[in-house]
Amino acid sequence: MKIYIIITLLFCASIINAQTTPGKYAIKNVSSVNTDYADFGTSYFGKDSVIFSSPTKRKMIRNIWKPNEQPYLDLYLGKIGEEGDIVGKQKVKGNVNTKYHESNVVFTEDRKTVYYTGNNNYQDEVKNDTTGTLRLQLYKAKVMPDGKWEDVEKLPFNNNQFSTGHPALSKDGKKLYFVSDRPESIGKTDIYVVDINDDGSYSSPKNLGKKINTVEKEMFPFIVDDIIYYSSEGHNSAGGLDVFANKMYDTTVSRYLNIGEPINSTFDDFSFILKDGRGYLSSNREEGIGGDDIYSFLIDEPLYIKCTQQVMGVVKNNHTQEVLAGAEIKLLDKEGKVLETVTSDKNGVYHFTVNCNSTYKITGDKTNFKDDDEGIITVNDIVETPINIALALMPEVIENKINIENIYFDLDKSRIRPDAAAELDKLVQIMEDNPELIIEATSHTDSRQSDTYNNRLSSRRAKSTRRYIISKGISRKRITAKGYGETQLTNKCSDDVECTDEEHQANRRTEFIVVDSEKLD
Questions:
Q1: CB 434 within 8 A of CB 370
Q2: In this structure, what DSSP letter does residue 234 have?
Q3: Collapsing DSSP states into helix, strand and coil, what is residue 92?
Q4: Where are the beta strands (DSSP E) in 129-208?
C-alpha cells in the first residue's frame, strides 16, 4: 500500500483578507445645503452635480414623519462648487417627489435612467404592511433631456411587507445592488444584488453573504470599480454606522476593511461616495448643523485594498489517515526564495498568508519522509478545491536491507503465499515512491534437504518473488534475484540440529537488499 504524507491546501473564500494603505481625508461640512433637519444621501449626477435628500416644509399639508418628528424628505439637485460646496439647490423635476420620503438614487452611466428609494406610494396609492407600517420601495424612472424624471415604475422584487431601497450600480450597469430587510436576511438589513438582464428584466435577489452582511444593519452601498463601500453597525464599528469597504471579484469578495478616521466617528457615518479624489458622506456627528449633515472630503491618495489569502492545510499519513504534527512546511516564491517556514501543529494544521494573483511553491519535510513540492498559483476567484502535496515515506534501510517484513514460503514450495503477497505489495509501493531504488531479492531455505536441492529451491523462490514484483509494474531492470540455499540461516537450525517447525520457517524467507544505496537520499 502506498504511504504518503498528504498536505491539503484549502484556498477558502471565507478567509480572504483585506489590507490597506489609507489615504488622508480632508472633511468639510457642506453648510450651503444642510438644514436643522436630516440632509443626506448624495449621489453623483455626471461630473459636476449631485442629487441628495433634504426635507421640504409644505404649507397646509402635515408632512411630519412621526418616528423622528421631522419633515418628509424630497430629492434635490445641486452643482458641485469650489471646495466641495453644493450650490444652486433645486428640487428634482418631474412627478417624483411626493408627500412621503424619497432618497438615495443612482444613475446609469448615460444618465438616462435613475433608480431611487421612496415610500410605498405608487401612482398615488399608499400601501402599508400588515402592521400599518409604510415601507420603502425601489423605483426606476427615465431622465429626460430637460432633466425631468418620467415613466416611474416600481421594481418587481419589491414587496409590501418589507423595505427595499438604497440602490447602487456596478460600473457596467449590469448589476443593481440594494438594501432590504426581507425575511431571508442575515441581519436587520442586508445588502442584496440582482442581475439586470438584456431585456430589462431582473434576476432573483441574491444576498451578498456574511463577509459583508451581519446580524446588524448594512446600508447605503456604493460601487467604485471593483470596490463596494457601505455602512454597517455589525462589523468592528467605532459607534453606530461606520463606512466599510470590500474588494469584489467574480465569485467572492475580500474581507471587510474599516475606512477609519476621520471618515468614521463614534456617531453614524454613511452614504459614502467617491469620484476623482473628491467625495461626500453623511453623518450625525456632533459638530453638524442638524440631525444628519452632508460632508465633503478630499483624498490625496487612493484607497488601496490588497488581496491576500489564507492558505491552510492538514498534514496526514495517507495510509493511516493519522494527522502528523511537526512537519516542516516552507513557502517559496517563484524564484525559489524561502518566504516563510511553519510547522504543523498537534492537529497537523499549518497556515500561510499569500498574495492573490501570485505564484508560489510549497514544500513539506518530515523525518523519514522524502521531500516533495508543488507549485501553486493564487487567484482572485477562490476555488475551494484541495491541492495535495504528497511526501513519499522513505524506506527504512538497516544494514542495506529494506525494513519490511520478510516473506516466507511453505516447506519445499516456491509459491507466493497471500501473506507474502501483502508484504511484496508494500515493497512495490516503496519502489514506486522511490524510482531511483534498485533492489535484489535474496531467497533462502531451511537445512532439511541437501545443499544442491536447497540452492535450486532458493533460486526458484527468488525468481518467483521477482516475477511477482515485475507483474505489478516495476521495471525488470530494477529488481534482481538470487538464491542462497541454506548458507545464511538466521538461527541454530543447521544440519542435524533438532528444531521446531516455527524455527525452520524463519529460514524459509526472502529478504530485500538495496543494490544502489548511494542514490537513496
A1: yes
A2: S
A3: coil
A4: 136-143, 149-154, 164-169, 175-180, 190-195, 206-207
DSSP annotation string for 451-501? HHHHHHHHHHHHHHHHHHHHHTT--GGGEEEEE-TTTT-SSS--TT----H
Top-tier CATH class for 397-519 = alpha beta
| Longest Cα separation, the chain | 129
By three-state DSSP, how is residue 341 classified? strand
CA distance 443 to 157: 80
Task: Write out the three cell numbers for 48.
Answer: 459636476
Measured distance CA(164)–CA(136) in Å, rounded: 6
pLDDT tens digits, 50-82 = 999 998 865 434 455 445 556 889 999 999 998
CATH level 2 (architecture), domain 22-303: 6 Propeller (2.120)
- Taking the alpha carbons at both ends of the chain, their separation in whole angstroms is 21
3-class DSSP state for residue 420? helix
String of DSSP letters for 425-447 = HHHHHHHHH-TT--EEEEE---S
- Burial class from Cβ neighbours inside 10 Å (0-12, 13-18, 19+) for residue 321 reads exposed
Compare 467 and 408 and report the one with higher pLDDT. 467
* Residue 448, helix vs strand vs coil: coil
Domain ranges of the chain: 4-15+307-392, 22-303, 397-519
Interatomic CA distance for residues 350 and 377, integer angstroms: 18
Contacts of the segment 471-478: beta carbons below 8 A, 24+ positions apart: 472/424, 472/425, 472/428, 473/428, 473/432, 474/428, 474/431, 474/432, 478/431, 478/437, 478/438, 478/439
**108 vs 434 pLDDT, higher one:** 108
Q: pLDDT band at 287, cuts 50/70/90? A: confident
- pLDDT tens profile 460-485: 988 998 999 999 999 999 999 999 99
Judge contact between 7 and 313, C-beta under 8 A: yes
Q: Which has more pLDDT, 108 or 388?
A: 108
Task: Please give the CATH superfamily to which domain 4-15+307-392 belongs.
Answer: Immunoglobulins (2.60.40.10)
User: CA 237 to CA 226: how far, in whole Å?
Assistant: 23
Distance between CA atoms of residues 121 and 101, nearest Å: 9
Give the integer Cα–Cα distance in Å for 192 and 186.
Answer: 11
- DSSP state letter for 424: H
